[in-house]
Amino acid sequence: MFRRVGSNWKVFIGLCLLGSTFLWAQGLIIESNYSPLNHKRSPRKSTEYIILHTTEGGVKGSLEKLRRYGEAHYLVDTNGKVIRIIQRNRIAFHAGRSMWNGKTNIDSVSIGIEIVGYHDKPITSKQKKAVRELLRQLKAIYQIPDTKVLPHSMVAYGRPNRWHPVSHRGRKRCAMLLARDDIRRELGLMSKPSFDPDVRAGRLKVADSYLNNVLFRVIPVSVAEPLGVAATVIDRGRSAWDIAKENYNSPGTLYSFPDGSQKRGDQISDWNKLPPGTQVKMGGKAPEEPSEIERVQVIGRDGSSASEIAGAAIARESTIYFLKDGRVKQGSEMTAEDLINLPVGSGLLVGYVHGGVIRSNRRAFDICGPRWNLPTTFYRLPDGTVKSGNEMNERSIPLGTMVFFQP
Asked: Which CATH fold would you assign to the domain 8-216?
């Protein structure tokens, strides 16, 4: 029932019936600007977490990209305005390769909130007020405790690589300052995890001690990483991965060498030979790509050998090889000689389950459940092409297609 207040009640009812673009609730302005992919996203079966992100860029480009790929449920602008991108009951692809307390694929059980800003800079007072109210509403709806409202950097993890031979925590610093006790209090969050359960259980190793300290206050906060130009220069104690994290081989990461020459991240293959003194600059112009979509690693592009790319996982069952002759093999099926002699152009997926083959009585959903259309799930079609789950229509996947998904 609505109580008439002047003539405004007709306008209010009309907006509700039409699916209002704007909503004012408890001082919170929410605008709906849904991704074209919204209606294609499956409903979540449960909601256990809220994941906080920082866009690492301005509102215009961030909103365009988040809408294009359906990478968040909400975006919070610097002026406090909140924009809906994916309906809150549907899956958004915002957390990517993620794990918390042994649970992987956090996308399937979480809501993602992107805050316009940077991981190492404070958010605005208007953003804090908006996020606080948005969190209050979402926590009440889904009965989510404060200890399950987490920054993305706390749940993201990296696969083995040339620098870290095992799966590790620290592949991104996204929203890391939102783990600080003082900032969480301003967001209405009175508690947080006191340790990383996956590191404690041995599932992951710490690969970024500074980030680990920010998240959990392991050592006094005065112990900080180098600041300024020195923090972006490669030396004997600082690698490309330490500086750029997972963007080390991105076309948007620029390497300026001591001799004055330059290369983009996607133009470098021998990462062991980058000279000390190389300056690393991130955030350059690059093709618009989804930020949390996995891709097949390729020898010659992502590393000079399988061992550089897969680290200690090189010969494991969970490392999938796409050979140039068209065969697909797991690392456990390869001899040491095979692995050493893999040619340039061979593809790898690290940390995957080989789910088997699509048949007339065995659909993609039967193989990997609701993960079938995640961007982190891969399909190797009978013609040899490889596509991610978000490119697939389950009803038209050819018989004989192989399915690979993250556990």
From this structure: Lysozyme-like (3.40.80)
